[in-house]
Specification:
- The protein has one domain (2-296).
- It is built from 6 helices and 16 strands.
- The chain has helices at residues 16-19, 28-35, 105-108, 164-173, 184-187, 277-286; strands spanning 2-4, 8-10, 24-25, 48-54, 61-66, 84-92, 110-115, 125-127, 135-139, 145-146, 149-157, 178-182, 202-210, 221-232, 245-248, 254-258.
Length: 325
């Protein structure tokens, strides 16, 4: 049983990523080099995924790679070196670097459209690359449909701190269409002085459709899940794995339910000065620099009255931040 806000209970579906005992790397290119005959550069248009253990003394972890239409190297002449655990079909949305002023958000930001209520033979996972500063933002426009069925969109918003102007414009464009998000402070260990680890800043963030019963509904619920990781830049000399290793983070994992029946985060109209303090607050929240010493972080914007329902996103376990009640 997983408790949400200590008042709701969620009977968890079989999310094998969440239950996996080892940290999981999202370096698709490196994992495919080791395991597949044909190396890949990304997971675009790949349907089936699996988990592969890569264990070396003192540094065990797993990785994700495509399963369908790719031959595997012959690795089983002696003891099995890799253990496979299929997670079924998955949506994928990529990281895109930079912004082109001649393109719209759909073209500039990695994104994917997702069915609100997928069937048993449709993807129950939504995956993207590892994050170390980026954010996932969930939007659903009124009447949005895919294949004639209700749908929503997940965005891999790149480097929000460096792209505040674009982030503000994005929030304004999707005003009252935003349902949740995960940002840097959800997966990075905060710099609270002693013992700060600057490598503890990576996140395996993904969506999972839990088709278990929730609050009397049999339709299931999408979950926005955050698994913080610690990146180890230098691999072990004796290892075949030539890219960064990952370890479990000191930062707690978090899970948020995306309940489309409750409506989006309400963003009121601009005030007489043409500004919206709630948008200012969301931009501040998404770009909050937990890696900096506390005294060097940007102070919280003033919002008159209470913040709208859903802010900060439900399930937040952020530490060291005082939020206005």
């Amino acid at each position: 049983m997983f408790k949400v806000k200590q008042t709701q209970e969620l009977h968890l579906g079989e999310d094998v990523i969440w239950k996996h005992r080892l940290p999981i790397s999202l370096d698709f290119e490196e994992s495919s080099r080791l395991v597949l005959v044909q190396q890949i550069k990304s997971l675009a248009n790949i349907e089936l995924m699996c988990s592969v253990d890569i264990s070396n003394e003192g540094q065990p972890f797993s990785c994700l790679l495509p399963e369908k239409n790719f031959k595997r190297k012959h690795l089983f002449s002696h003891e099995p070196k890799y253990k496979y655990n299929s997670i079924g079909s998955a949506y994928y949305f990529p990281y895109k670097a930079g912004f082109d002023s001649n393109k719209d958000f759909i073209e500039n930001i990695g994104n994917v459209e997702i069915l609100v209520n997928p069937g048993s033979d449709e993807p129950h996972y939504v995956l993207t690359g590892a994050m170390n500063g980026c954010a996932i933002i969930i939007t659903k426009e009124e009447g949005q449909k895919m294949m004639g069925r209700p749908s929503f969109r997940a965005w891999h918003f790149q480097s929000p701190t460096s792209n505040k102007t674009q982030l503000r414009a994005f929030i304004n464009r999707y005003r009252n269409c935003i349902y949740s998000y995960i940002c840097f402070q959800d997966y990075a260990s905060p710099n609270n002085g002693s013992g700060y680890d600057e490598k503890d800043v990576e996140g395996f963030n993904y969506l999972f459709f839990n088709n278990a019963v929730f609050e009397g509904s049999l339709d299931g619920t999408w979950e926005l899940n955050c698994i913080p990781l610690k990146r180890i830049p230098m691999p072990l000399p004796e290892s075949e794995w030539k890219k960064s290793w990952v370890q479990k983070s000191r930062h707690c994992r978090s899970r948020r339910l995306i309940d489309f029946t409750k409506g989006p985060i309400i963003i009121p109209p601009d005030n007489a000065e043409g500004k919206c303090p709630v948008i200012d607050w969301i931009v501040w929240d998404i770009t909050y620099a937990v890696e900096k010493p506390f005294e060097k972080r940007e102070s919280e914007p003033v919002v008159e009255g209470r913040l709208p329902s859903g802010l900060p996103p439900e399930g937040s376990i952020r530490k060291g931040i005082k939020l206005r009640k």
